[in-house]
């Protein structure tokens, strides 16, 4: 449970330790010479260890598991970078893991909280939200410190700037208790500006902008984030927020009411009729005037609203686990459970992914999936290594759909094609379970070249040899006559016949 390997010397009783492997250990495999061992952990990592030195030689990491289930887990907590094909997942050790979906490799880890993680400790802090900008150059995280004996709770909002490559971030601004002591329900980035919005259960939302570069004391230029405006509506909790495709409209859900704002002037420009229950997610369908809302309470609902005439276009009663909209088209996807998530339902529920066009209530396509509970979906741009035969007639913008299930297994596929989803070529290339590892001569010098022996047929006619002892034993052993027959012929061939003379 503590993530520590202990090696015992039976003769002397001495012990050697390898601590801080990050999570509880699952399996241990020893090599034949005991110099190298392999251990797997509950955070979906495999470590290759040099046992004499107790050093980690190599670590293979899959998508790490989220924080412990229970009241702390939220739906759809993963962040997606659709431009670079990355998924950002909060892990148990207070990090954000960036995973390349097309290459099937871990890109980097960002340490959000400077705190030692011990698997046996009680959970006192967790990352509740991760949001990435459309280009993937900005990130926002929300971490929550749980109160101890109803004292000491803290909500922290952090903004991050991208480093030299995708998935690498450095901290820009830390804001403690951005909405007093209230929790943050949603964070969204403006599609074209360095602007973000955070909504809270404390009955308000705040618009944040990145300030101009400032000269610090050490001579380096720095930039930070500041609050530009604050808005509220009838003292109702703000439960979701989203920017339109061009960024001119900010939609904020005040429980079951959708309010529309001018983000630059913080002016209320419209109110849409109420939904059946409090809204937990808002998203605009591309550059269109359609707004998708998701309600996940006792009265679940997926609804599409027409922002131009402030009316509902259509709606469904679905137990939706997650939803996402395309950034360029008017299509969106909904991950729905096949049964009610409450009332003794199994932990691993199957589901269905429905693809809609915002103007029509009839699904364009549907896909059955496993382990839908706790899953996430997102549109991503088509990667060059995924499929060379991908149809580019849809513009190449967010044409593929990523489904990450409750066990953090994922698949990438074209939702509008009726073909079985396939993993990317780069992922398939990394799987080598059917090829045995080289041993012996091949492990040191490599494989010998394979010689192709071609049977050459001579045009010269066959002439029996006058020296039979040179060819008598030529051929396969199973094709030769018995030795008793060969012996007399062989010895006779070695004897020199004396000419017969007449006397």
UniProtKB/TrEMBL annotation:
Ranges annotated as spanning the membrane: none
Cellular compartment(s): Nucleus, Nucleolus
Name of the protein described by the UniProt record: WD repeat-containing protein 75 second beta-propeller domain-containing protein
Swiss-Prot/TrEMBL keywords: Nucleus, Repeat, Ribosome biogenesis, rRNA processing, WD repeat
InterPro entries hit by this protein: Beta-prop_WDR75_2nd, Quinoprotein_ADH-like_sf, WD40/YVTN_repeat-like_dom_sf, WD40_rpt
Primary residence: nucleus
Domain WD repeat-containing protein 75 second beta-propeller: start-end pairs: 95-336
Top-level taxonomic group: Eukaryota
